[in-house]
Amino acid sequence: MPLGPGRRVVSSGWSARPDQVERCSHGRLRRGGCRATLLVAVFVVVASVVASGAGATGKRVLTVYSVATGVQYINTADDRARGQINNPLDSVAKKLAPKISDSGNGPFPGDVAVFALKLYSNPTLKRPAGSAVYTCYFNYHQNALCQAYYKFTSGGTLVASGPIDFKDSGFTIVVSGGTQKFLGARGQVSAAAAPRKAQRVDFELIG
Question: pTM for the whole thing?
Answer without folding.
Answer: 0.66
